[in-house]
Amino acid sequence: MHFFLKLVPCRPTFAQDMSPEERAIMQQHVGYWTEVMKQGKVHVFGPVFDPNGAYGMGVIEMESDAEVNEFVAGDPASKINHYEVYPMKAVLPS
User: According to the CATH classification, is domain 2-88 in 3.30.70.1060?
Assistant: First the structure.
């Protein structure tokens, strides 16, 4: 099963004005996603610089909703931001 994850920042200016503590958490977040990518469960991830407000995105492949919930809960960024999770019908090419 594939999912689109949108990491919604805690405030609209988050990308521009992170505190040192927030920046450290976001660096841990990148490491977390990179490790799961090495396992083949993350297809793509990164920041989106939407003019209405930057956010993070990722496309993941997990076996169940429970696995997605565990993945999100384990992400350090979840401490200060929140996720929107959307199931996908297909990811092409596979």
Answer: yes
